[in-house]
Amino acid sequence: MSDGGPAVQPTAELMAFAGNGWAFRELVRAPARELVLATILRALNNAQSAAVTIAAAAAPGPARMRARAVGRAAVMTPLYAAFLTGIAAGDDATLATPVVAAALAVGESVDAAGATVLDAIVAGSEIAVRVERALGTAHHERGWDVRGTCGRLGAAVAAARVLGLQRDATRDAFGIAATAASGLTAARGTMTAAYIVGAAAADGIEAALLARAAFTGAPRALEGRRGLAALMSASFDTAALLEGIGATFIYTTIAANVPSVPAAESLRALVARFERLPSIREVIDVTIPSRTS
Question: Most buried among 137, 150, 176, 256, using CB within 10 Å?
Fold first, then answer.
């Protein structure tokens, strides 16, 4: 029963956090750098894998927005670059992996500064983790892969922030991504498990680009009567979603699982000063085989 106070609007609260113009503090940027490094190194380890090679063969030609997947020299759309990076990193992906893959691809395509991309990763990862917590164990028990559901939402938020979308457009991107949210844990052990991560990253970018073009999405895609929470979980914990948002960062609990990759010193050095880079293109540059051999 309502206590007469204003109704809580979780999606609006999340979008207010995502669109805030602040630069995040070092305390929360540091784990984001670890996520960037872990994602890139995982993707670099598997950039020539069978799954990525198969998917790359189907890649569309370059469009006006161009980017490269980690570890691959071909220029392609940012959607496909994020897709391939996500597949390459997907074998040991975290909930933040689609967020990082999307932010890197969009960031390269618009020649964004490192600080812009890193703060987008913080915002997108924080929202992804908070949504996962709010959906609770029932979401997992129903067989949903959170990288494809919650990770897709985070990827859309990150892409929207890199593109500089205003709050309403970011909400639309979030709603579009929520409509596409999917991924089955039954796919584990197959190439589709990595596909889930790549598709989440690509769909997040697509959602942001559609929203930038004034394509609308459900304004209450998360908590609406027929929204994602109602359909994908038996309960929805608004407190877990919103408590301390913008002040307490829970995404920092994600274990980055940074792999060891030979001759990755220059990449590690770049990521260590990621937010000071005038362009993130140099990060992708050092992952290209001709430059890392």
Answer: 150
